[in-house]
Amino acid sequence: MAINITLIGLYLGIANRWGYDSIHYYIPFYEGDTSRKFEPGFTLLVYILRTIGIPSELFPVITILITTWLSFIAILKLTNEYVQTTIIAFCLTSMISFMYLYMGGMRQAISFSFILLSIAYQSRNASIKSFITIIIAISLHFSALIFLVMPIWRRLDFHKKYIIILLSLIFALASEYIVGFVLKALPPGSVFANKIIRAFEYSDRNNEHAIYIYKFLYSSIFVFILLFLLDKTIKNKSASLILEYALLAYVFSAILFFTKESSIRYLFVVNVFLIPFYIMSIEHVFVKTQRRVILLLIVIIFMLYGVISHNWLSELVTRFI
């Protein structure tokens, strides 16, 4: 945990700023701006921190510490091993920190730390605790609602999941054309049509979304590697459970690809879940010397995703030139 706090401080020093949403929405909301409404759980968290006297400048720092601490506890429960937990926590802290600093994903990051905790309880057959933590996650960010369909998703056999994921990828790549065709067929001015147009317009305005296709395909590679090796690699039950959540999040990320903003947030979750899956799975696939090499590659791959995904190197260089 001390390493994670050090990493957070390092990223804060490099970035020297918070994400757009944190600056324009969350911190003003914390300071009393009521022009925007947020989920009840997040609103309650703000109220508690504000009541005990946490200043607005520290609000994002406190929430990121809560997020990484919950993630650490969840992974420790899943692995029962401190070495694995430390490596996974190192990767997760890096990705979560990037999300806070560049995506302003405060609500979603803390929400999905509760999802990780829910998975840990589920792996131990603590159904009530698992359900309660899912509800807490939903109260913090409504995107966690997708995991209510997890019982149905887990009942599907491998071939059905493979077909659904493959179709969702095809839909993602052709979504702008498909949604454009649907939009033309809808009555002009309808509520549904207006929401689609708004999603398209927002994606066009955000420069980050212009290169999103590369980030999506980058993650897709690792999802489909898993699908081809699924019946051979997964012997760890906790890892298998994490993978179920990752694949479901990927389906929603693909379906929402045309919106970019919603899709990229689910894609973040996919990568958060794939990190512990890969690290937990290699114990049963490779001998000890091979595991070290593969582990190093996994860390590099997902750290590289964090770097590519948020373009912090270019901003750092630009600031000092």
TrEMBL record:
Keyword Chaperone: no
Database matches in InterPro entries: EpsG-like
One protein family per Pfam: EpsG
Membrane-crossing segments per the record: 58-76, 82-102, 130-150, 162-183, 211-230, 242-258, 264-281, 293-313
Keywords: Membrane, Transmembrane, Transmembrane helix
Highest taxon, organism lineage: Bacteria
Protein name: EpsG family protein
Organism: Citrobacter koseri
